[in-house]
């Protein structure tokens, strides 16, 4: 009974905080801490994400670059995660990064910076969702090719399966919103158990492992570029395995005590991802077999080839691949939920066309149905990745500006970094600037229209759209959260 009263008190307190930011509580608060850690790690799931880029990393510097750089990437990611966690604790609103920018940025440019951040944030989340769905489709079709070698995977097959994954998750998000917390709790158990099973099985079954020198010291370069450039490319592939840990920020309006628990979920997902990612990289590197054979596998998924090389069994390979498919489906479901809440929040602030419709919440289920449908349609499109780094960088940049201009030196939430705050902000921002620039680099030389990295063009298009729409409609209609001084948020420091 006492616990129920405490939960009710927490929800009343969080509703009051949301109201001070200018919003009414419309969504159902159902997530606890474990569920949100599971939700966040379902999206981060570093070890499976690394599996999708492993062969590219091996060709761009080799296992040593990916393995040793992973340690550094995890440390820098923690700097970003801790910085975002502190801000999220003070401003637990579904808008996440763009809302924080509106509060922390200099008042004269706050709305404009918030608008641009919102566009990059939403594009990044939906792009990562589409990428995840394509990975899931590749794993499903790759198993079909392994079992039936005469079957040839076509591009349109992958697109259809990706849209099927998006459709399943859309239905689940609309008709089963109360299940999200339970699914997330089950997902983290499944994910970590699957991680242990995969690592143990491939290490135990593989009797022709690579030597330790290949894994920890030998430099590989199949890129056609110089050594330093190849090393940067290998590092960036590792970086792909550590992103999207902002997910709890966009689900705060569905958490029972987000000011206290969302920051913990953000940080814990990075710790779990760092550990599982490192162990998986080492295990997979020992079991990778011939690089060329793995890279040119007819399954289209190098990790499936690694499983087959290790087990020598089609059934065993399909078993290991299938448990990863379940993880990808859980990630797809969580990414759609995160993306739809981001769309809902941005529309609530009049940031999208047809904002009133997209921001509408279905009263019975207490979910933004039209935002979910819009996100579902977007998550089947061909993926464009690494926009999240830009939306992560903006709140850190505005936080640093706010600190040094005395606009806001202390973030007023219960989760505080104390004197380490500003230094972690600076460290995290420098890392994000580095990855945002270098992720535009091409990965193969000579560069042609097929292997060209079009990320820079996509970023330019999104940036141009955000600026043009700001000038034409955004500056007149976009609202954003209410701007508050630290003293205007009264919090229980329990």
The tally of strands reads: 2
Major beta sheet, strand line-up: 1-2
What percentage of amino acids are in beta strands? under 5%
Our count of helices gives 20
Q: What do the pLDDT scores average to?
A: 88
Q: Low-confidence spans: pLDDT under 50, at least 5 residues?
A: 1-5, 486-494
Q: What can you see in these coordinates?
A:
By secondary structure, the chain is mostly helical. Helices cover about 70% and strands about 0% of the residues. Helix 4 packs across helix 19 and helix 8 runs antiparallel to helix 15. The chain is globular. The two termini are about 20 Å apart.
Based on the model shown, name its key terms.
494 residues, mainly alpha, two-stranded antiparallel sheet, 20 helices, 2 strands, 69% helix, disordered N terminus, disordered C terminus
What is the topology?
Layout: H1 2-20, H2 33-44, H3 46-59, E1 60-61, H4 63-90, H5 97-104, H6 110-147, H7 155-175, H8 180-205, H9 212-216, E2 220-221, H10 227-240, H11 247-250, H12 258-286, H13 291-295, H14 302-311, H15 314-348, H16 355-358, H17 369-378, H18 388-404, H19 421-438, H20 455-477
Antiparallel strand pairs: 1-2
């Amino acid at each position: 009974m006492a616990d129920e009263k405490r939960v009710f008190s927490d929800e009343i307190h969080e509703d009051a905080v949301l109201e001070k930011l200018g919003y009414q509580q419309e969504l159902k608060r159902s997530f606890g801490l474990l569920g949100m850690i599971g939700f966040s790690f379902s999206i981060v799931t570093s070890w499976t994400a690394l599996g999708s880029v492993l062969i590219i990393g091996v060709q761009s510097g080799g296992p040593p670059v990916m393995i040793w750089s992973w340690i550094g990437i995890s440390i820098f990611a923690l700097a970003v995660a801790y910085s975002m966690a502190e801000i999220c604790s003070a401003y637990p609103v579904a808008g996440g990064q763009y809302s924080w920018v509106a509060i922390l940025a200099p008042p004269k440019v706050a709305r404009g910076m918030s608008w641009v951040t919102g566009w990059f944030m939403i594009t990044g989340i939906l792009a990562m969702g589409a990428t995840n769905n394509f990975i899931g489709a590749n794993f499903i079709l790759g198993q079909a090719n392994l079992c039936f070698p005469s079957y040839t995977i076509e591009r349109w097959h992958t697109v259809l399966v990706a849209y099927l994954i998006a459709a399943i998750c859309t239905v689940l998000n609309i008709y089963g919103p109360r299940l999200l917390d339970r699914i997330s709790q089950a997902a983290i158990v499944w994910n970590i158990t699957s991680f242990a099973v995969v690592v143990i099985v491939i290490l135990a079954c593989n009797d022709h492992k690579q030597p330790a020198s290949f894994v920890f010291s030998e430099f590989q370069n199949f890129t056609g570029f110089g050594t330093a450039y190849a090393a940067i490319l290998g590092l960036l592939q590792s970086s792909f395995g550590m992103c999207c840990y902002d997910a709890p920020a966009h689900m705060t309006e569905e958490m029972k005590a987000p000011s206290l628990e969302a920051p913990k979920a953000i940080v814990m997902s990075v710790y779990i991802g760092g550990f599982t990612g490192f162990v998986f990289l080492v295990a997979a590197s020992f079991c990778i077999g011939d690089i060329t054979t793995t890279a040119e596998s007819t399954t289209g998924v190098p990790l499936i080839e690694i499983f087959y090389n290790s087990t020598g069994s089609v059934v065993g390979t399909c078993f290991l691949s299938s448990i990863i498919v379940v993880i990808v489906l859980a990630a797809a479901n969580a990414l759609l939920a995160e993306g739809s809440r981001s769309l809902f929040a941005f529309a609530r602030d009049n940031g999208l066309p047809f904002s009133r419709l997209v921001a509408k919440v279905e009263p019975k289920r207490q979910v933004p149905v039209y935002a979910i449908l819009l996100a579902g349609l977007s998550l089947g499109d061909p993926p464009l990745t690494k926009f999240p780094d830009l939306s992560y960088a903006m709140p850190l940049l505005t936080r640093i500006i706010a600190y040094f201009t005395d606009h806001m030196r202390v973030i007023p939430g219960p989760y505080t970094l104390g004197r380490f705050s500003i230094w972690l902000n600076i460290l995290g921002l420098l890392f994000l600037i580095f990855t945002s620039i270098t992720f535009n680099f091409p990965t193969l030389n000579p560069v042609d229209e097929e292997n060209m990295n079009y990320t820079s063009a996509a970023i330019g298009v999104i940036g141009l759209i955000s600026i043009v729409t700001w000038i034409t409609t955004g500056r007149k209609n976009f609202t954003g959260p209410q701007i508050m001084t630290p003293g205007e948020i009264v919090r229980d420091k329990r």
